[in-house]
Amino acid sequence: MEITFAVLLWGVRIAFLVLLYLFLVRAFGVLHRSLVAERAADGATRSLGVLVVERSAGHAPRVGERFSLRASTSIGRDAGNDVPLSDEAASARHAVLELRDGDWWIEDLGSTNGTLVNGTRIDRAERLRFGDELAIGRIAMRIEKWAG
Amino acid sequence: MGGLIALTRRRPELGLLFWVAAVGITGSVAVAAAETAGFRPQQLVIPVTFVVVAFVLHVFLAARGVRGDQLLLPLAAVLTALGLVLVQRLASNLLLQQLSWTFIAAGAFAATILIPRDITALSRYKWTWAILGILLLMSPLLPVIGREVNGARIWIGFGAVNFEPWEAVKILLVIFFAAYLEEFREVLAQTQRRFGPIPVPPVPYLVPIVAMWAIAMVVMVFEKDLGATLLFLGIFLAMLYLATGEAFYTLIGIVLLVVGGFLAYQVFGHVAARVDVWLHPFSEEVRFDAGYQLVQGLFALANGGLFGAGLGNGMPERIPVVWSDFVFDAFAEEVGFAGALALLALYLLFVYRGMLIALRAPTPFLQLLAAGLSFIVALQTLVIVGGNARLIPLTGITLPFVAYGGSSLVTNWMLVALLIRVSDTTARVRGTP
Questions:
Q1: What is the value of ipTM here, to two decimals?
Q2: Distance from C-alpha of A62 to C-alpha of A82, rounded to nearest angstrom
């Protein structure tokens, strides 16, 4: 009786260590699989984007200037915007570009003169595709896939 | 139906939690069975209760539709379960108290998942966090609520409940640093003026850096808390380096720390005592006095060998205050090098996962936040394990999730929740599960 108990006790002690290591192995497995899945998802919807200025009236922004987009990118006349526009037709906080579920969306923030996507004025959040053209006042910009 | 689909989304997490249950319950059985009083099945109530809490948290995350990371919850849960096993082993009278702290920690975790609707918005209130953090940091110095325990004045107490404000402060500071550095990192990084290899940034932006150093020194001097000082400065320097990529700032910080540390060694008795114990623990004067705890810890560590004495079979009770300061040595004595290595690997996985979350996060604020939070866990583990093994002077830092202590457990679970939130935001932005 005494001996069986001692053997059992050692069994439990060893099982504890073994289980600890099994947990570690499983955890590494989960990490590895999630890394692989993330990489695959990134490859499929390479979502990073840039705005390229195509037309501009003043000195800021210059034609050809590129703004790399953040997950939420503000556009407007204020210097504090991620993409500042020096155009009287632009409102202080004019519009916002947002990444949602791997797609870029543009939303007008109630600006005075509106935002145009491929020549059409938008009245609600609109999904963009790479190559679409945004126009605000006399400034036009194209959203492109970030290469590099 | 939609609810059921949501529940299956976090399958890997669920799978890992079964292993957490196995580890926690086996450990508890091993400890209970080794007791001289014999095996009492009632003792299993505690690990089982905690496992239920962990599963509830999993269901909560799945029902909320939280996306992204599925590794941090099981890792935090297995570390907390090991903590419960060790408290049962080392200070079983504190076990119920520690279990109730895990409930509070789970509540804090859930609240952090629920409450800030948009965690990016945390950066807007950065000065609020900074002021709140500094007030909390200074609070132990106040006459009525401040408490001095074992020579360090780092506690505040209301009646029977004691809380270590430093624990909450570290998270507030990481949020503040992340927000501050997101705003000013370009100014700090792209300095035009250089004096030789030394960048000369615009002075106003350096003021917070010097202020941080000054506050760290105040804490060291008045609260006699070496560990907090080290962590505080370490977090800030690491985040500054991450944000600016300018190694020189880190260098200045380290030089200031060394100068401050040397002065403290010369001027303050408690700092000098810690260093002396670290350098000569076996000398006649300290062996049975100030160095007793460390020496007993070293013996325990050495006794462990490759596979240890077996859980419940060692003599960790010979180390004074083992359940809060020396859990690592106690664990290593009973499960040996093999077990200690597994424990360190768990922390490594946690920190690695945290850094990966930081790398993928969509905005600089979230990147710095996740990196800073992971760094807290990394630095704490390093400082306390290093202190236990006499690699560096011993400080009062706790081993995250494992050591006995409520404030630390609650804030660490909030830290996990914040990391999961960052990962969730990233998944939503990038459109990954």
A1: 0.88
A2: 15
